[in-house]
């Protein structure tokens, strides 16, 4: 019998070097099913590098990462399985400009999952409705606002029916008036029980949605706490210093 472990992400003592540069210096993090973890930290602290190891976009050299019971080992056998379980949304939407919104969303389900076009389109339309842009299905990314493009990117990731969603500064490239519509979609995903790891500086979102907030600095995990403690009574000087710069 398959037993589902409580932790869907188990990263232990992860080290990574870019050449001589020690970018991840022994980072450990476990994420429970349905949990929302927000990662904050100064630019260059290794946040993107760390979460990109969770879907094998980055290799690591030491330590271990287990995603939903699958060990992300150095051989590449498990990468396809992992990528299907872990969706990712980037700062720069990364949509295919020459494909319509609908084609962007159905591409992976058709080619990777081998779904029929009809089945893939049916799910895509449901997802577009969910992210509030059903009427944009036949448009090209360039015809959409940034906020709409990011919602397409979220729908595209969800189309693979992932168990985990990673977000790397999903609102940082957006005009202020579009941040909210993207955060609202993320909020509803969290409410529906999606496991999420979110790199963001949106304090309001972190306070309201995160189960845990983490500070990374210089390739290490400095502090991990509930939002309430993280923002009002952090235990580490480094966290206080960081918060004084962003609050
Ligand atoms: P963050 O997301 O917290 O801003 P990153 O994970 O993007 O930080 O980067 C951490 C550090 O690693 C930075 O100093 C960055 O310059 C460096 N870095 C990122 N990608 C590479 C790469 N491909 N080669 C060499 N150094 C890199
Ligand atoms: Mg980054």
TrEMBL record:
Pfam families: ABC_tran (PF00005). One of its GO terms (biological process) is organic phosphonate transport. SUPFAM superfamilies: P-loop containing nucleoside triphosphate hydrolases (SSF52540). Residues 9-243 form the ABC transporter domain. InterPro entries: AAA+_ATPase, ABC_ATPase_HisP-typ, ABC_transporter-like_ATP-bd, ABC_transporter-like_CS, MetN_ABC_transporter-like, P-loop_NTPase. It comes from the Bacteria. SMART domains: AAA. GO terms for molecular function: ABC-type amino acid transporter activity; ATP binding; ATP hydrolysis activity. Keywords: ATP-binding, Nucleotide-binding, Phosphonate transport, Transport. Belongs to the ABC transporter superfamily. This is L-aspartate ABC transporter ATP-binding protein. It comes from Nostoc cycadae WK-1.
């Amino acid at each position: 019998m398959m037993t589902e472990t409580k932790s869907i992400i188990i990263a232990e003592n992860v080290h990574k070097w870019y050449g001589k540069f020690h970018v991840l210096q022994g980072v450990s993090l476990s994420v429970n099913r349905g949990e929302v973890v927000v990662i904050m930290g100064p630019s260059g602290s290794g946040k993107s590098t760390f979460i990109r190891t969770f879907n094998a976009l980055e290799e690591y050299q030491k330590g271990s990462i287990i995603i939903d019971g699958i060990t992300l080992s150095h051989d590449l056998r498990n990468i396809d399985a992992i990528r299907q379980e872990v969706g990712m949304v980037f700062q720069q939407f990364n949509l295919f400009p020459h494909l319509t919104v609908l084609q962007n969303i159905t591409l992976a389900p058709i080619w990777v999952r081998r779904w029929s076009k009809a089945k893939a389109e049916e799910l895509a339309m449901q997802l577009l409705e969910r992210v509030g842009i059903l009427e944009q299905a036949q448009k090209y990314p360039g015809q959409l606002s940034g906020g709409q493009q990011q919602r397409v990117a979220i729908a595209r990731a969800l189309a693979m029916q992932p168990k985990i969603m990673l977000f790397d500064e999903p609102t940082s490239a957006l005009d202020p008036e579009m941040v909210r519509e993207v955060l609202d979609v993320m909020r509803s995903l969290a409410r529906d029980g999606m496991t999420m790891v979110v790199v963001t500086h949106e304090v309001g979102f972190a306070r309201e949605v995160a189960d845990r907030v983490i500070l990374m600095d210089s390739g290490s995990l400095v502090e991990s706490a509930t939002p309430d403690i993280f923002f009002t009574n952090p235990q580490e000087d480094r966290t206080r210093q960081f918060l004084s710069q962003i609050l």
